[in-house]
């Protein structure tokens, strides 16, 4: 069929262009015959490549068939260029790749947006400056009460100094009422029931026991290493999910309208100066506090007495 169409088109052109061909020399005629033969060869190769290709060609639309006919003609095919299958195969992967890139970016946007929304930075409800006996105990109790507590301590290592080695019975009872009596266990603490005065000359002893409670129980205290007791209180606070510890030095208290609204501190790990805000700030930075004099009057409230004796 295609050979017949090729011969017919050549005869048609030959008759219509007789004058032109009469003046053409042998080289021009030979060139036309060569291009005509190549056109027939390409047409045969394109349209007779196997049963599978012929089945696909039968499924083409009428517009595709017309395009095939025009492109198969030796002279008309020069002006009517039909895209080859190779060019379609090259463009198709590009379009698929582009589609994958768009889908990937859509997935990334969908996944990162919720994560960003679920990670807001909240200030705590309570800031505690210092994690000694009072600061650590208060952090544990408030955390168990459901409060978000942040404790800022200058040094979280175990203290190594001789101070606070004896917990009086009143202090131990308060510790028990707070549910922190376990903090004196496992630190080699010793039960103390009172005092004994020794007279070296007469070798006599005078016992001064602690008073009994209203229910008849003998009050007792605890003696221990101060640093181990502090670390026990800190472990109890750190075990609470609502408590957060920051190792750093508080530089100043932040105030607005004569009210403390937070602290400014220097982070020990990074060295950066940061601010933290909270509705309530508790200053529990020990005996030599640098903030106490700015918050309370110089008058000291005495709540108890400890009697000491000097024997000569």
UniProtKB/TrEMBL annotation:
Annotated transmembrane regions: 28-44
InterPro entries: FAD-bd, FAD/NAD-bd_sf, Squalene_monox
EC annotation from Swiss-Prot or TrEMBL: 1.14.14.17
Taxonomic superkingdom: Eukaryota
Domain spans labelled FAD-binding: 125-296
One family name in Pfam for this protein: FAD_binding_3
Keywords assigned: Endoplasmic reticulum, FAD, Flavoprotein, Membrane, Monooxygenase, Oxidoreductase, Transmembrane, Transmembrane helix
Molecular function via GO: FAD binding; squalene monooxygenase activity
Catalytic activity: squalene + reduced [NADPH--hemoprotein reductase] + O2 = (S)-2,3-epoxysqualene + oxidized [NADPH--hemoprotein reductase] + H2O + H(+)
Cofactor: FAD
GO CC, any one term: endoplasmic reticulum membrane
Classification via SUPFAM superfamilies: FAD/NAD(P)-binding domain
Membrane topology: Peripheral membrane protein
Primary localization class, coarse: endoplasmic reticulum
Compartment list: Endoplasmic reticulum membrane
One GO BP annotation of this record: cholesterol metabolic process
Function: Catalyzes the stereospecific oxidation of squalene to (S)-2,3-epoxysqualene, and is considered to be a rate-limiting enzyme in steroid biosynthesis.
Protein family membership: Belongs to the squalene monooxygenase family.
Protein's name in the database: Squalene monooxygenase
Species in which this protein is naturally found: Neopipo cinnamomea
